[in-house]
Amino acid sequence: MKAVNPYLNFNGNTEEAFNFYKSVFGGEFRMLMRNKDAQGMPVTAGQEEKIMHIALPLDNGTVLMASDNCNDATFKQGNNFYISIHADSVEEGQKLFDALSLGGKVDHSFKKEFWGDWHGNFTDKFGVNWMLNYTENQH
Prior knowledge:
This protein is 17% helix and 37% strand. By secondary structure, it is α+β, with helices and mostly antiparallel strands. The two termini are 13 Å apart.
């Protein structure tokens, strides 16, 4: 397993939160992708500038990541985070995804996404939110 990182969801104020975290921890954003940058995915009117994905590397090798949920029906403060696992291979990612999601609720199957990475997310049978990721050509 390459890494395990926290992944936060915000209800429309990710950019404000991450500018604050950046002021505290320092560093530069590794990635900042807005909803309007999502190729082939529908974007709700007025949500184009909201954050689809942002990553702030911390000094210890951990990467703090987040996105805007912007859905009052599904956003719940206090349960707005994921444990994000970065696998060393597609096979490891699929194996961990299948094992951890058993008996839980799969939101997105582990598959290659438009941005080039393999990704899937789910809530396990204990109510913990997980993301599995694999980036090809990472070595």
